[in-house]
Write a structure and sequence with these properties.
5-stranded mixed sheet; Diaminopimelate Epimerase, Chain A, domain 1
C-alpha cells in the first residue's frame, strides 16, 4: 500500500464507514490497517471499512463470479478488522459513493458483496433502497407458537427469548418484555447468546411501537453497539412480523441514528431503504 491513501467518510443513519478506493484492485487492506482506520481516537473512525474494488479483481473467486452482474465489489470489514459478509447501511453509502464518483450513473444498479449480488435503487435525492436478497429463519422448522430458538443474556437481566435469522449475515432478535426498558440496557459488553452461534451474531433488542412500527438497539458482531444496523433493522422487522403471524409487509424502524424502511418482498426477500451521507474526503497514511 502506498504511504498515503485516499478515503471518504460516510454514514447511513449514523452507522459510519471509512471508504477506501482501490479502483485497480491492487491493494488489499490488512486486518491491522482496517482496525487502525476504524479507530475513533488514533485513526479516521468508523463502525467499518469499505474497500471500493472492481468485482473482477476481487481476491475471492465466489465474488469474482458476480462480475457479470455487478461492476463493483463492496469489500466490507468490521471495525476490528474481521471480514463480514455484507452491511445493509454500508450498501447505501457504497452506492452513494459510486454515484458521486461517476463509477455508476443509473438510478438502479447491482453491487457485489460476500453475500451475493445486491441491487440498489435511488428514490429521489434522500432515499436509497437495496434489495438485501433472500432471508431465512436459522431454524426453518420453528413454529410461530414457539416463536423463539435462542436465549440472550445481558448483565442485570434474566435470560431473554430471541429468534435467529440469516440475512446473509447472522442476527439474533430479542423481543423485549414490557418490564425491560430498552434505553437503560447496558450494551458495552457483548451479549451472551445460547446456543452459541458458530460465527458470532448481531443482537437486536426490539420494542414494538405500533402496527408496522418498531424501535431497536443493536450490538454488532465485531464492532459493539452502533447507532444503526441495516440488516439488523430488517431482521428485527422480519422477526416481529413472524411473531405477528406474518402480518404486515412494510415496517418503519427507528434506530438511535434515524429511521429506516423495511419491506418484505415476494420470494422470501427483503428490502431496506434509508438515507446515505458522504461527509468528508481526505488522505491519510496507513500504519
Amino acid at each position: 500500500m502506498a504511504d498515503q491513501t485516499a478515503f471518504t467518510k460516510g454514514h447511513g443513519t449514523e452507522n459510519d464507514f471509512v471508504l477506501v478506493p482501490d479502483l485497480e484492485g491492487a491493494h488489499e487492506l490488512s486486518a491491522e490497517q482496517v482496525a487502525w482506520l476504524a479507530d475513533r481516537r488514533a485513526g479516521i473512525g468508523g463502525d467499518g471499512v469499505i474497500r471500493v474494488v472492481p468485482t473482477a479483481a476481487a481476491g475471492d473467486s465466489s465474488v469474482r463470479e458476480q462480475a457479470a452482474e455487478a461492476r463493483w465489489f463492496m469489500d466490507y470489514r468490521n471495525a476490528d478488522g474481521s471480514l463480514a459478509e455484507m452491511c445493509g447501511n454500508g450498501t447505501r453509502v457504497f452506492a452513494a459513493y459510486l454515484r458521486r464518483e461517476g463509477l455508476e450513473t443509473a438510478d438502479e444498479f447491482a453491487i457485489a458483496t460476500r453475500a451475493g449480488v445486491k441491487v440498489v435503487r435511488f428514490e429521489g435525492t434522500d432515499l436509497i433502497a437495496v434489495n438485501l436478497g433472500p432471508w431465512r429463519l436459522a431454524q426453518p422448522t420453528i413454529a410461530r407458537d414457539e416463536g423463539f430458538d435462542a436465549l440472550v443474556h445481558l448483565d442485570g437481566h434474566e435470560p431473554l427469548s430471541a429468534l435467529s435469522l440469516d440475512l446473509g449475515n447472522p442476527h439474533t432478535v430479542v423481543a423485549l418484555p414490557e418490564s425491560v426498558d430498552l434505553d437503560s440496557l447496558d450494551l458495552h459488553r457483548i451479549p451472551i447468546v445460547n446456543p452459541v452461534p458458530a460465527h458470532g451474531t448481531n443482537v437486536e433488542l426490539v420494542r414494538p411501537l405500533g402496527a408496522g412500527h418498531i424501535r431497536l438497539r443493536v450490538h454488532e458482531r465485531g464492532v459493539g453497539e452502533t447507532r444503526s444496523c441495516g440488516t439488523g433493522a430488517a431482521a428485527a422487522a422480519l422477526a416481529t412480523r413472524f411473531w405477528a403471524g406474518g402480518q404486515g409487509d412494510v415496517w418503519t424502524v427507528d434506530v438511535p441514528g434515524g429511521r429506516l424502511r423495511v419491506r418484505a418482498l415476494p420470494g422470501q426477500e427483503v428490502e431496506l431503504a434509508g438515507p446515505a451521507v458522504l461527509v468528508a474526503d481526505g488522505v491519510t497514511p496507513l500504519v
